[in-house]
Amino acid sequence: MEKRIYGLLGRKLGHSWSVPIHRALGCEDYRLIELEPESLEGFLRREDLGGLNVTIPYKREVMKFCDALDPAAERIGSVNTLVRRAGKLYGYNTDIDGFLYMLRRASISLREKKVVVLGSGGASLTAQAIAQQEGAREIVVISRMGPDNYQNLPERHKDAQVLVNTTPVGMWPHMDGQPADLRLLPAVTDVADVVYNPGRTNLLLQAETLDLEFRTRDGEIPPESLRENGVRRIRYTGGLPMLVSQAKRAEELFFDRVIPDREPESIVSQLWQDQTNLVLAGMPGSGKTTVGKALAALSGKPFIDLDAEIVRRAGVPIPEIFARQGEEIFRNLESQVLAEVCGKSGQVIATGGGAILRPENRTAMRRTGRVYHLHRDVRQLPTEGRPLSQSGRLEEMERLRRPLYAAASDVLIENDASAEEAAVRIWRDFCENSGH
């Protein structure tokens, strides 16, 4: 029997997590297929195609090669799943299933709301169709050109209630971008970002921060005053649940079988656990390296000591960098190394004590990781070999850094017993919150 081709079709696929998802769903031969536009037609004419998912930039382009289109895909004008049966190529849109699953999982309702969709590509067409289907009051599409664009978004659509990002802005490896500023859209209470890598884009991090500020301060300050400053209760979701749910539906179409509805949630949890970094932050001497090594052994993830990596690259010990070049040069190198390390996934990372001083570092840690503030009583912190700790102002340093550790971290862990016990507490929390 002829071996058939299954995989994800796109132009640049280095960001993709589709292979482990489809293999978890039972398709062992699933692979990434990167093609340039001129090669598309020849590939799609192959008789040994089994099933393909389709991503940027080909969701509309593949439609002209289909012998038949599912009514929903034809109506939307976007195909993300292809199946060859009896020599004919059929086109479907399983993003519909994934998008609905993502919204409902996050308790996001579009009914009677003004929905702003960022982007005008294939994923945008799906989002628009779902918004219409779900009874949105108004649907606005934002593109780079035209009457509704990114420059006039805040002034023309300040009353937007739901923001959906269907662009690749903020996606790995260009993770610094953010398609819109939520502080300029004070009525937005629901955010959906179809990007899934990194797990928390800058857009989602901002939504999370505003939501946390509201929940922390609600009751202390009148809600009206909070909303005037852009702080509000926000429901938000990244694109991983959508990716997994649409893959489930695609697999059902590939092999004409039914997959249990519980499968997507199990895969979301496992994939998040596999791909997300465990990041340790805390004062110098708080035990990050020791706990990190114990956590790496417990989790099976590789361990990266940020300070050791800096020393390896600089070729000299950190105290020598401080003595010869000063703190600013060290912090620049630290930021560079941290961004590179956090750009990878599935690691345990022990950061330096001052890594949280720069906001861009805190963002890089949180985008791809769950961050743990490892805390130890300042009187128990060693100072040998630590230039700033030897200044005699350790208590003052800890007081000033405390809010920055809180801003950077998801969870506070007291390292008041053995390193192994701290590692177990972290790993338990990490597993319990997989996919949340």
Radius of gyration, whole Å = 24 Å
Strand content of the residues, in percent? Answer: 15-25%
Which stretches are low in confidence, meaning pLDDT under 50 for 5 or more residues running? none
Q: What is the tally of beta strands?
A: 16
Name the helicity range. Answer: 40-55%
Query: Given the C-alpha coordinates, what overall shape results?
Result: globular
**What is the SS-derived class?**
alpha/beta
Order of strands, widest sheet: 2-1-3-5-6-4
SSE inventory with pairings:
Blueprint: E1 5-10, H1 18-24, E2 31-34, H2 40-44, E3 49-54, E4 68-69, H3 71-76, E5 81-85, E6 88-92, H4 95-105, E7 114-118, H5 122-133, E8 138-142, H6 153-156, E9 162-165, E10 190-193, H7 202-217, H8 223-228, E11 235-237, H9 240-255, H10 263-275, E12 277-281, H11 288-299, E13 303-305, H12 306-314, H13 318-325, H14 327-342, E14 348-350, H15 359-368, E15 369-375, H16 394-408, E16 411-414, H17 419-432
Parallel strand pairs: 1-2, 1-3, 4-6, 7-8, 7-9, 9-10, 10-11, 12-14, 12-15, 13-14, 15-16
Antiparallel strand pairs: 3-5, 5-6
Helix pairs in contact: 4-5, 4-9, 9-10, 11-17, 12-14, 13-14, 14-15
Kindly list the characteristics that best describe this protein.
436 residues, alpha/beta, 6-stranded mixed β-sheet, 5-stranded parallel β-sheet, globular
Summarize the structure.
The protein has 436 residues and is α/β, with parallel strands linked by helices. It has 17 helices and 16 strands. Helix 1 (18-24) links the parallel strand 1 and strand 2 (31-34).
Structure description:
- The longest helix has 16 residues, at 202-217.
- The mean pLDDT is 92.
- Strands 2-1-3-5-6-4 form a six-stranded mixed β-sheet. A five-stranded parallel β-sheet has the order 8-7-9-10-11, sandwiched between helices.
- The protein is globular.
- It has 436 residues and is of the alpha/beta class.
- Helices cover 41% and strands 16% of the residues.
- The protein has 17 helices and 16 strands.
